Amino acid sequence: MKLKILALVFVASQAIASEDYNFLSGTDVHDALSQDSMIVQGYVLGVVDALKHQPEGCFTLPYQADADRLIFQAYLEYWQEQVPPASSVDAIVEMMRTRFPCDATIELDKG
User: Fold this and answer.
1) Whole-model pTM?
2) Could you tell me if 47 and 92 are in contact, meaning their C-beta atoms sit under 8 angstroms apart?
3) Could you tell me if 46 and 107 are in contact, meaning their C-beta atoms sit under 8 angstroms apart?
4) Tens digit of pLDDT for each residue in 6-45?
5) Helix 26-34 / helix 88-99 crossing angle, nearest 10 deg
6) Which residues contact 85 (CB under 8 A, 6 or more apart)?
7) How many helices (H) and strands (E) in the chain?
8) pLDDT for 35-79, tens place per residue?
């Protein structure tokens, strides 16, 4: 009996660890940001912070006090008319690379 339970746990853990599994989808992030979810806002900033110096990151962070608001708004606008990838990390990186590319100089918002 114990062996059957262990086998079931192993099979279930393999299914969860599959590459197709995503904790949050790009659509989940969009939905949560549109509702001002502080948890998902923190998640987005964590992904951005973790990848900003990685080769797949290649984006520039806005250098101003409300950079977080700009990133959240950019995500909502970027994925408004198209379906984001299943991977929330891929969706965040694609948006950041497009809206805040490596070679861009981001000016402070004067207004």
Assistant:
1) 0.73
2) yes
3) no
4) 333 333 334 444 456 567 999 999 999 999 999 999 999 9
5) 70
6) 25, 26, 91, 94
7) 5, 0
8) 999 999 999 999 999 998 887 678 888 889 999 999 999 999 999
